[in-house]
Amino acid sequence: MNEFESYISSLGSEAIKAVLLDKCSEGFSSRAGGVFFDIPGKSWPMGPDSPLRPLLQIVVDELPYIPNSISHLMAICIYIDKDYVTFDILSEEGSEFVVREIPKGSTIIPLENPTQNTFEAKDIRWEKFTDYPSASDFFEWLDNQRIDYDFESSDLENALDKYSNYGFTKINGWSTTIQGPSYDEPNVDGFSIQISLDIEIPFGDSTVFKIDWGAKIKNWSCMWETC
């Protein structure tokens, strides 16, 4: 193992990866798009002008490990506007971005989805994996160490392929950015969701949503970037 690969491997952080399946069950499950569940009496969340789109439903007990900050929940359901979401926004009923929490032990029913503008419905299987920072951070480290490297070298290409974290949805781990290097340390104590290219997001050519639970503000926030 060369110096470059040794450094990358030392940065590994435990995270959870979403594996999208080619089906969507009728029951209560983790999924992208499709029918979401909620407590009886709740209605489908509305945005400023129209019903929101069902982006991601996380069934907490299906995760390979459960972060303490969500251990009291049965599920987390994320909805976004059909056209646009403000770059940095808090979850609020009636806004472009709504996160619904379902407490553990709740009675739940499927919600009737009034919008035809939906994502492709797919169940999700969650897998534990070791996550690594974006490739742009590796290049920055090489520059700082004044290490001369060849972008086309097989050693560099193989290392980046082996430790790549780009293009899939995950929970916690290192942040993936599109427009440059990320300086965020991996989330190990809180709860952070990154929704990426494997789920059809309607903004830009390549989009990453980062959704975090803010313990201090006791609310969910969403930031995103695209190119």
UniProtKB/TrEMBL annotation:
Name the UniProt record assigns to this protein: DUF1963 domain-containing protein
- InterPro entries linked: YwqG-like_sf
**Source organism lineage?**
Bacteria, Pseudomonadati, Pseudomonadota, Gammaproteobacteria, Pseudomonadales
